[in-house]
Amino acid sequence: MTLVEGVKKSFETKGMRLLLLLVTLGVVATFLRMFKGLGGMTNLTDDYPWGLWVAVDVFSGVALAAGGFAITAAVYIFNMKKYRPIARPAILTAFIGYSIVVIGLAIDIGKPFSAWHPIVMWNHRSVMFEVVWCITLYTTVLLFEFAPSFLERVKWDGALKVVKIIHYPLVIAGIVLSFLHQSSLGGFYLIAPAKLSHLWWTPNVPYMFYLSAIAAGLAMVTFEGIVSTRGLKREPETDIMIGLGRGTRIALLVYLVAKFADMTYRGNWQLLFAWDKASIFWSAEMLIGVILPILLLSVKSIKESENGLLTTSILVLFGVVFNRFNMTFFTQSTGVEGFYFPSIWEMFVTLGLLAAIVMLYRLAVMHLPVFHEGPLNR
Amino acid sequence: MTTTAQIAQKGVLVDLTRCIGCRGCQVACKSWNERSVKKTINRGEYTNPQKLNSDTYTRIEFLEGAFGQAPAWHFIKDQCMHCKDPACASACPVGAFKKLPNGPVTYDFDKCIGCRYCMIACPFQVPKYEWEKRIFPWVRKCTFCSDRIAENLIPACIKVCPTKTMFYGDRDAVVAEAQKRLADNPGKYVNHIYGKEEAGGTSWMYISSVPFEQLGFNMKIPAKNLPDNTWAMLREIPVKVVGFVTVLSLIAIFRNRGNGHNAESKHKEEN
Amino acid sequence: MTNHFIDFKNADVILVMGSNPASNHPVSMKWILKAMEERGAKLIVVDPRFTQTAAKANVYAPMRSGTDIPFLGGMIKYILDNNLYFREYVVKYTNASVLVNPDFKGPGELNGLFSGYDEKTRKYDKKTWSFQMDENGIPKKDPTLKDPHCVYQLLKKHYSRYTIDKVSSITGTPKEKLEEVYKLYASTGKPNRVGTELYAMGWTQHTIGTQNIRTMTIIQLLLGNMGMAGGGINALRGESNVQGSTDQGLLFNTLTGYLATPSGSLVDLKSYIEKYTPKTKEPKSVNWWSNRAKYITSYLKAIYGGRATKDNDFGYAWLPKLDEGMNASWLNLFDQMLKGKFEGFFAWGQNPACSSANSNKTRQALAKLKWMVNVNLFDNETGSFWKGPGMNPKDVQTEVFLLPCASSVEKEGSLANSGRWVQWRYKAIDPIGQSKPDADIANELYYRVKTLYQKEGGKFPAPILNLTWNYGQKDALGKIHEVNVHNVAKEINGYYLEDVYDKTATPPKLLGKKGELCATFVHLQADGTTSCGNWIYCQSYTQKEGKIINMMARRGKGDPTGLGLYPEWSWAWPVNRRIIYNRASVDPDGKPWDPKRAVIKWDAVKEDPVSKKPGMWVGDVPDGPAPPMATEKGKLPFIMMTNGVGGLFGPGLADGPFPEHYEALECPLEENMLSKQRINPTIKLFGDKADAFFSCDMRYPFVATTYRVSEHWQTGVMTRHEPWLLEMQPQMFVEMSEELAKEKSIQNGEKVMVKSGRGELWAIAIVTSRFKPFKIGGSTVHQVGLPWHFGWQYPVDGSGGDSANLLTPTVGDANTMIPESKAFMVNVVKVAGGRT
User: Fold this and answer.
1) C764 contacts on B by Cβ (under 8 Å)
2) How far is B227 from chain C (nearest CA, A)?
3) Do residues C354 and C706 touch, judged by C-beta distance below 8 A?
4) Which CATH architecture fits C689-830?
C-alpha cells in the first residue's frame, strides 16, 4: 500500500471521521475569521485582546510540546538509552504541536498576511520578536529531527544521510531554542508588573515557565504514550512510563521549590491570604497541578501503575494549562469590569486545531516508522 | 536602558482643577484624526464612550461622589501617556510603535502584524484595536498630534480647550510648571505629579486637587521603565546560549563516549 | 449684558445663579477661572443641582427651583441690615432717596399684592406706584434716606419679611449656606471690591422671571456694582445670535433697536412718539429715550426710503400694528393656532414641536394649519409633526414645505454675542445642495409676494410694495438673485440722506455728507434726513473720512486699559461702549471708585477732539459724553432711565415695583410661605384642558426643572445629527437624587417614565449625589432635572427619546411671557419590565 492509500484507509474509522469533522469545522471557522475579521466571530475585546487562541493554541500548546526537547535531551545528550523508544514519538508530538501553534498564531494575529514581518522588521527589545524567531527556528529544527521517520518511509536515502549527520547539533540547538522560548513565554508577562497579580508575576517568571514546561512536556509524553499504546493495541511501555513519572515528579518538585522560594524571597505570601479570585485560582493551580501529582507520584501503587501515571499526567497537564490561562486572563482582568468567554467560533478553531494534532499523530504513527517496531498495517 | 534622545521632548501638564468637562477636546481629537463613533447608550452618567476605543483617542471621564461632605464632580481627561520609555514600543515585535525624539509615541500600521501584545503591555490600558476591520485592522491611540507638532502647531485637544487645562511645552518646563503650581498654591493640589515617575516617567502628566486613587488613576504602576523588566531577561540570552551550548556539548561528549561516531561538534547555531 | 464676557476676569466675586456657564458657555469659564487665579476671585454657584460650574466653585448653595427671589431678597435684607451697601453710590446714583406716593402699599400690608390690583382683569392700576413730585415736576428726594416714604425705607420694609429662617424654609438652602453666600457677595459693597452676576434661562423662564433679574439689579445697585469693571448684570444668552435677533426686533413687541411695535390705537407717528418718548424735569437726567422720534423716523426712512415723506407720516401707516392689548407672544400664538386661527405658519430656524412649552399642545396645534413652511438645516419634529407619536397622518390636512437653509458657516454675516459685541463672520464653504442662506430665502419670498401683490392687488399691498429692498444687485426686472449682506448691514447702520448739520452749534457744524454712512446715532434726525435700520447698530458699518469701514470685522488686539475691553476688536453696541452705565463707575467728580479698575476717568486737561476744549473721558466710551456729574454740565449716569438714576423702585413692570416671591404655577406647596398670594397675580392663565396644571398634587409630587448639556444645542436638531456629539450624549435622561431613587427603587441607568399634567416621556435615570432633597417648610421635597435636547424624529429608531417640553406648563412670565420651563411638577416611575 502506498502512503497515500494508507492515509485514505485510515479515515474509515469512526474516530478519525469525527476528528476530520472537527478539523473541517475549524477550517470553516478560520475562513469565517478571514471574512468577518476578529470582531466578527470572536469575543475578543479591547479589555481582553488575548483569548482562547492565545491561551491554548500558543501558550499551552508550546508548554505541552516541551516533550520534544526533554526527551531528546535525555536520550541524546544524557544518553539514557531506556527512553530511546519514545524519542521519535516525543519529537513527533512536538513537531505536530509546534506546527499547529504556528498555524494558531497565524489565525490569531490581526494581519495574517503580514506574519512574515518579524523576519525583516526587527525589534531586539521585544520578547515577542525573540519568541517568534525561536519558535520559527525550533519548528524547523523539529522538522529536521522528525524528518528521518518520513524519509525512511519514502526511502529518500540521500536526504536521510544528510539529516543524520546534523542530528546532534540539531538536538543541542533544539534544547537551547526550547529553553529560550519556553522561558520567554513567561517573559511576555515581565512587561506588566502592575497588571498581573504578584502571585504569578516575578522577574523570575521565565524560569518558572521553563520548569513547569519540563514537567508538562514529560507529562504529555507519558499521557500520549499510554493513550496511543492502548488505542493502537501495542505492548505497554510500562518501564519507560514509570521512568517518565519519576522525571515528572522531580521536575514538579524543582518547580515547587523554586516557586515557593521566589514567593518567600519577594514577600508575596500575603497575596495568598487575600482570598480573592487570584489567590483562589492560584491555589487551585498549585494544589491540583503540582502538589497533588507530587503526592500521588510518591505512592508506589500509583507511580507504578499505568492508570495512576495517566491520572497524574492529566493533573499536571491541567495544572500547566490552567497556569497559562490564569496568567493570560489575570493580566487582562485587572481593573476591568466584565469578563471574556470564547465564542463558539473561537472554540471551533481551537477544537479543530486540537483534533488536527490527534489526527495527524495517529496518521503519522500508523504510516511512518515512529515506533521502532514498525508501522501497523491495518 | 534609555530609548531615543531625551532632549527637546515635549510634555503636557493636565491640571485637573481647570477642566470643566466641556469635552471640546474629545471632539477636536475626533475631528483632527477623522475618527468615527460607536453606538452608545446613556448608562446613567455623562461619560461616553465608556472607555477609549479605536474611534476615541481621548475622552473625559465624569466622576462624582460625595468626597467628604460637599458633593463633587471631577472631570478627568484620558489619553495615551506617551511614556518616555514606552512598554508598547518595547513589546512590539516589529517596532510598529516608536517614541519620537520630540515626544509622541507613534504607530506605523504598515509594520503591524496585529498580535496585540502592545495592548497587554501598556500599563495604562491605552491601545485599542479595530476589531471590526477585516483586512486592515489598526491599533489606535492618541498620536500626541505628532503631525501637528511637527509643524510647530499644538495638539488639537490643547488648542481647543477653553480653560487652558493643558500646559504644553518641553517636558522639563512642564515638570517645572507643575512643581511651581504645587508650591504656589499650598493646600490646593495633592503633592504628587502623576506621570513624573510612573512607568519611568511619561510625557503627559497630571496634577489634581483630589488624591489620584480617588479619581481612578492606577497607583500601582512602578516608578521605573517597564521595558527594563523584559530587557533584564533578554540581554542575558547571548550568555545563556553560549553557556547552554557549551554545557550540553560537554555533557553529550562525556555521556556518549564509547558510542562510536557521534556528531557532537560544538555548533553554535544562530538564534 | 451690561458688561461682557472678558470682563468677568475683573471681578472679585462671581455669582452664578440661574445659569451654568461651564456647561453652556464654556469659553466664558476661561475668564472666570482667570479671575479666580489671578485676583483670587471667589465663585459662588447657587443652583438646585451641583453643576459643572459648581464643580469649580468656592461656594455652592443648593436652592429649590423657583425660589430665587426669596434667596436674593434675603440678601437684600442682609445688605441693608448690616449696612453693607455703597452709600454714596446709592444716594447719588439710584432712586433710593426718591419719595413714593404715600398711597403705595406693598405685599406686607396687602397680603401678597401691591396697591391697585384688579382681580377681574388680573392687572395693576399703577397710579399709586408713582413718585411724589415737587412744584417743578421733579421727583422729591430725601438724601438722608430716613423718610418713611422714600424708596430706601420702602425697600427695607418690603424685604424685612425675608428673614433668614423664612428664606431657608422656602428655598431649602441651609441657613449657614445662605449666610456664607450673603456675606461673601455683600463684601463687594466696598468701592474697591466688585461683584458680577451671571444668569440665563434659570432666571428668565419663570412666571416671575423678570422680577428675578430685577432683584439682582437692586442688589447690584445697592452694592455699587453697576457700571464697574467686573460688575454689572450679565445675561448669558442661550443661543449664539439671540442677542442679535432681539436687537433686530424679531420679537413681536419690538421693531429694531427695542423700539416698541405700535398698536392700532396709535394712529399716527405723532401719537406713537408721544406715547413712547419719556419726559422728565430732572435737570441732570439725560433721558436718552427722549430721542425716540429720531430713531423711529430714521427706521421708517430706512425701510421705505424715498417713499416715506413728511407728508405720509414717513410711511408710519404701513407699519404692521398690534391690536390694542394684543400679545402675540409664543404661548398665545400656539394657543390661537390650536383654536384654528392660523392658516399658515413659518417655522423659521426653530423646532416648536420640541422647544415649545407644552409640546403636545403645540404638536396638536400644528395639525390645525393649512400649510407650514419649515426652514431648517434638517427635517425635524416640527416638519414631520404629522407622522409623530400619537398622530394619524390620514387625519392631518397640513401641507408642509421644507426649505433647506444654510448653516452659519455657509454664509457671511454678523453675530451679536451676549456682551453686545457684534462680530463679523465669513463664509467657510458654500451651502450644500439647494440650501440657501435665510436672507436669500426671505429675498425670494419677498419677490414672489411682491409680484403677487402687483399682479393681483390685495387688501393692503403698500407695506410690501413700498419697501426699499436694496440688498443686492438687481437684474433687469429688479430682482435680486443673491443677497449681499453688506448692503443689509449698511442699511442697518444708516445713511445721511442729505447733508446733516448740528444746528445747535454756531456756525452749524456738518455732521455728515449726503450719501455717506452714519457715524453715530447721535447724528440721527427726526426730520427724515437720516435713515437707520437699527439705531443701536448705528456706527457698526460706517464711514470715516470717506473710507467705508465694517467696524464689526475689526480684529485689533489693543487693550489700553488692561481691563479686557479690546475696543478695536469688532464693535459693540451702543457706539462701541463696552461697559454700559460706566459713568456710575466714577464719583461725581469723575474719579473712578476703584482706580485699579478704572473703566473711565475724567481727564480735565486733555483736549476733547470733538469740542476742541480741555476735559474729556479716557478709557471706555463714556456712557454719555457729558462731563462729571458734579460739574455744571454734568449728568446722571443712568442715561436710559427717565430720571437718570438706577431704579431700586421700578414701576415699569406688570407685577410690581419691588420683586416679590410667588411660587411657580405648579409648586409642591399649598401656600406661599410669605403671603396669601400663591402665584404671580398678573400672569395669564390658559384655561383649556390642554393647559391643565397641578399644584401640590400627590400625582405629581416632584419639582422638575430643565437645563442643557454642552454636547447638544437647543432641541438638538443640529446636534443629534452630528455623530460625535450624539455619541457623547445619546439619550434623554433625568437626573435625580440618590434618596429619591432609593425611594422609588430606581437603578442608575434604568429607563423611567417622567409624567406631568400635560404629557409624559421616557428618560434614562441618572442617580446622582448632585441633587439632594430639599427641606421645605419642614417637609422633604425632591427635585429632578431634565435636558430638552431630544426629539422622536432623530435618531430614527427613537433611541434618543423626546423633548422635556412635553412636560412643561402653558404659562409665562408676567412681563415677557417667556414660558415657565424651569419649575413645574412631575412624577417619576419605573417602566414596567425595566430597561428596554
Assistant:
1) 41-44
2) 35
3) no
4) Beta Barrel (2.40)
